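During the reporting period the student researcher (J.K.) took over the structure-prediction task from the postdoctoral fellow and processed the backlog of single-chain submissions. One of the processed entries is reproduced below for the supervisory committee.
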Amino acid sequence: MKHHFITVEGNIGAGKTTLAHLLSKHFNARLILEEFADNPFLSKFYENPKQFAFPLEVFFMAERYKQLKEMVHSKDLFQSITVSDYLFTKCLLFAKVNLPDEEFRLYQKLFDIIHQQLIFPDILIYLHAPVQKLQVNIKKRNREYEQKIPDEYLYNLQETYTSYIKQHNIKTIFIDASNADFLGNKAHLQVVLDALEKDYEQGQHYFSLP
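J.K. obtained the following structure tokens:
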């Protein structure tokens, strides 16, 4: 296996956690999952974004940092591969969408201090799905606080993610997940597994699912 730290990213409802679980199982890898349910500000944010965006993002950043920092200090002789369902830079991308300018500048200062202490993944898998597909997936998983997420919010996140990846020339397996069914269609998972067996230059490398 050429990549030892694999991160799966994408918009809300793109299928990140499902794919991360499957990759972890396939490679007998250590799995790091976002603990979103522990954030006491999440449901409040969807009810009142302006009031709760800053504590929401600070809490997420602290929790993500704690998880990834523990990964750096712990070594498992039986699991040489780690799979995560989030990129730490996700903190900054969501904050950029959710926070007003002054709060974002403060948040960015905090982010810059701690980001340099973490390891960047060897490869990023980005799942790109149209907003209509994301909304279908969001409805299907039926988290109450997500059911009124507007299309515009998802579009803004999508644009922020893709702009960041392209601007920073990140080594990325870019998957068109418009019809993705990683659980039900083995051929879809196999596309990702085959892609992970290759070496890549910096930049985006695009794959479609059958």
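The committee noted the following: The domain at 5-208 is CATH 3.40.50.300 (Rossmann fold).
J.K. will present the remaining backlog at the next meeting.
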